[in-house]
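Marked as duplicate of an earlier ticket. Keeping the data here for the record.
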Amino acid sequence: MDVQAFIIFCMEITGTVAFAASGAMTGISRRMDAFGVCVLGVVTAVGGGMMRDVILGNVPGALIRPVYVVVAVVTALLIFTVLYVKRDLLQGNFGLMYDRAMLAMDSVGLGIFTVVGVTTGIHNGYLENTFLLTFLGTLTGVGGGLLRDVMAGVPPYIFVRHIYACASVAGALICALIYRGFGQIPAVVISSLIVVMIRFFAAYYRWNLPHIEPEKEKD
C-alpha cells in the first residue's frame, strides 16, 4: 500500500467510525435493541458508498473489503454497551459536550466520504464529468444518513438541515476541480476541510441565533 492509498484508507476508517457512531445514536434514541443499533450504524457508515458503487456498476466495496462493516459494528456495539451501562451519561454538561463531539465527527465523516465518492468516480474513468462526480460525492456523503433516517422513521436530516447537503455538494464540486489541476491529495485534504468548515459555520450560526419569544396575544 503506497502513501496515498494509506492516507485514503485512514480517512475512510475515520469516516466509518464517525458515521457508525451517528447511526448508533439514532438507533439508541429510537429505543432499538443491540441488533437494530448495529444495523443503523452499518447502514449509515457504508450505505452511501454501496449506492455509489451500484450506480458505477461495481460490486460494493464494503462487501469486498468487510473491514468497514466490522469497524462500523464494533463502533455501534461499543456505544450501545456504554450507554446501556451508564444510562444517565448524556445528561447535563457531558451531554452537551457529547453533542458537539458528535457534530465534529459527523462533519468529518461527511467531508471524508464526499471526497471519497468523487475520487472513486475519477478512478472509474469519469474525470471530465463534473456533474457525475459531484453527484457521486454527494450521494456517498449523505446517502447513508438518508437511509438511516428512513429506517429509523425520522425526517431525513438532509431535508431539515439544508446546509448538510449543500456542504457536501460544494465539497464534491471543489474536489473535482482541484483534482484536475493539483492531484488527489490536495483535492482530498482541501475539499474535506471546506465541507467541515461549512458544517461548523452553519452549526455555530444556529447555536448563536437569538431566542425569539412568541408575541403574547393582546386582550
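See parent ticket for discussion. The chain is about 80% helix and 0% strand.
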